[in-house]
Amino acid sequence: MKHSASMLALLTVSGLGLSGLSHALTGQIIDASGDPIDNASISIVGSKVEASSDANGRFNLDADPASAREIHITAPGYSHKNILFNPGQTDSQQITLKRSAIEQIDVTATPFHASIMESAQPVTVVAGDELRRKQAATLGETLKNEVGVHSSYFGPVSSSPIIRGLNGPRVLITQNGLDVSDASRVGPDHVVATEASTAEQIEILRGPATLFYGSGAIGGVVNIVDDRVPSSSEAKGAYSVGHNTVSDEDEISAAYTGGNDKIAVHVDAFWRDGSDYEIPGIAVLETEEEHEEEGHEEHADGVLENSASESKGFNIGGSLLLDNGYIGLAYGHLERVNGIPGHEHEEEHEEEEEGEEHEHEEEEANVLSDLKQERWQLISELSLDTPWLSGVNTRIGYTDYEHAEIEDGGIGTIFSNETLQARVDLLLQEMDGWRGALSLEVKTSDFEAIGEEAFTPPSRTESYAIAMMQEKHFGDFLWQLGARVEKVTLDADPIAFGHDEDELLHFDELDFNPYSLSVGVVWDFTEDYNATVSLTHAQRAPSASELFSYGAHIGTGSFEVGALFWLHDGEDPHFHEGNNVEEEVSNNIDLSLRKHSGNIGWVVNVFYNQVENYYYERNTGYTSEDIEDHDHEEGEGEEEHEEEHDHGALPVYVFEQADVTLYGLEAQLAWQFSTPFSLNIWGDSVRGTLDDGGNLPRIPPLRLGSQLRYQHQGWDAALSVSHYFEQNMASDLETETDGYTLVDAEMAYTFEVSNNDLTVYFNASNLTDEEARVHSSFLKNLAPLPGRGLSIGLRGQF
């Protein structure tokens, strides 16, 4: 937990001739009772100059008195505050900080100082003990209870965050500010190639974040922050070991950072191994008609078959510590093998010898995913003292990602993604009160899918961008402005298209020039309260999979067709190539009202997002057996077809563009009603509609949650209840989803061993063993949420 505080302090200058020298900015920080606050962090906004308060709440901060500066102070359990001071002030002042019931942690993902209470755009940060408590095997499950965030839930093996009803290529997943560069944006069955167990914090930017990250962040950003490239040699370490019963899963993780005055080193590692997980009842949700049909398929009771997984990985890095910052390099390796639930294929073998026909033999062949990723990162943050620049932050990443889909012991399809990305943020000197950054970025991605079930051709994406972000205080108002321009180029290899398998369809190289504009204001209209307005016009270039896909996507159990094709309806449905495609255009408004100090804190957000040319997958009502190009039942090629896996008649989904509207409400309240007890209540809703009528598919339902927590003398216990309402606003050919209630409990005790903290914990999830199906999941009728589960373990830090 990290919070903010503030102070008014003064510089001592002996004359104008000393204006270019550093002097001590001094002060004291106390709480409302007059007691000093130690270990508060005091920094000069726009620079890397910082200090900490001592046991008496006092601090000394090196400062340049040549111009007005803004001071930012954070302290655990207190509300953030920014103070402007001017040259010539000579008296140190005592500053009183207020308690905050809502956790406030600074975001590292933007050049601005931002937290849940300071940013014009809604943000959430999960860190420290809270992150350890919420940690799950997938990123989506780790974050699924954050306000405005749901999960795509593809069983326990793969789950991505959904922000305000948007996911896939609209929500960018980054690690230390760089794209994770996996295949998770292509399909929900693909794992997000990052790990929460060794992360220090996870930052969520809700709504368009295109200014900082480009058009792929039109729906939001999830940034996983770890210490693989250390910025300090301060010795620290953490470790954890645990076991849960619902999937008989064991896990262990550890991390260490240390070094000396010149060199910092970091190493972390994790390992996790689990079996098929337990569920309440039968996995497959059948209609009454399907169940009553003669010869309906029998399914295992109490377990989700083919949902086991094993993963492991490590990161190692080092930094050269300089007087004005650091420069470091890190290498990371990740491996994961998991089943893909809901997609066991039945293979049929037919033989005919000497006039005697043998019966069909049926055999189940599970589908597995085998992932490997290697990742290099170079990160540098340097302070400067030039007329134009106060600092330069550089991030360069290279990722080599591959995962194979294995069927019946053989590799069916291999997905690979090789990405090189470089980003430089030039931090500008403050001018007339304005401060900010100029950002330059280039990214190339070479994506390839090879195999009999490669539903999208090999493609290459290049993007170049320049962005400017500025902010300034005008009295009680903080204005934040930004603009970004990109150039995105996509091209893909030709594909077989039509009856003649030798006939190749060649794609033209496509160029897009999306741009984004944003203005936001934070108004501190009275003590302890603020209100915000954020307006964003953002454009997004389509992803390669949205344009070029044409084939069976076995993970989602569908036949996908890209937006470059158009459908001929009728008795003989088939596809033609040649659709025109355009950038997606979002016009978004966010309104927030916040109370950030005292024993009661709350945040209410309202958003409204109109999107033109929105890319979405429409269920056509046809199956893969209906369309012309996949009719191989007769004639040449029949023998080859029989040797391939028979996936049956897959529903055909086509990417189309339409004008849509998304709007919703997010609210959270924290009440510290006594010293050991606190109550948190939260809820969110999102509505997604097509402007021409109808609903968007897989939009999460309304939900409400609450948590009662007790924290005293090392004990930490909580009882949580979350209710997901029925989702009856379904799209065409989409089934409705029943509501459900989940009850969870946790208990932990922390004690000191050799001056180090050690925590023993016991958690219980889904205590009522409720059958729960996630409406936003492609597998909602095949894979319910886990049943009752118990977890036990210990974690420590030093």
Automatic annotation (TrEMBL):
| PANTHER family the UniProt entry points to | TONB-DEPENDENT OUTER MEMBRANE RECEPTOR, TONB-DEPENDENT RECEPTOR NMB0964-RELATED
The protein's GO terms of the molecular function aspect are: siderophore uptake transmembrane transporter activity
Species of the source: Zhongshania aliphaticivorans
A Pfam family cross-referenced in the UniProt record is: Plug
* Top-level taxonomic group: Bacteria
- Residues in TonB-dependent receptor-like beta-barrel domain copies: 369-767
Q: What is this protein called?
A: Putative TonB-dependent receptor
Q: Which compartment or compartments is the protein found in?
A: Cell outer membrane
Q: Which residues form the signal peptide?
A: 1-24
Chain coiled-coil ranges? none
Where is it found, in Gene Ontology cellular component terms? cell outer membrane
Topology with regard to the membrane?
Answer: Multi-pass membrane protein
Instruction: Extract the ranges annotated as region (Disordered).
Output: 343-366, 627-647
Task: Tell me which UniProt keywords the record has, alphabetically.
Answer: Cell outer membrane, Membrane, Receptor, Signal, TonB box, Transmembrane, Transmembrane beta strand, Transport
Q: Where is the TonB-dependent receptor plug domain?
A: 116-221
Keyword Transmembrane in the entry? The reply is yes
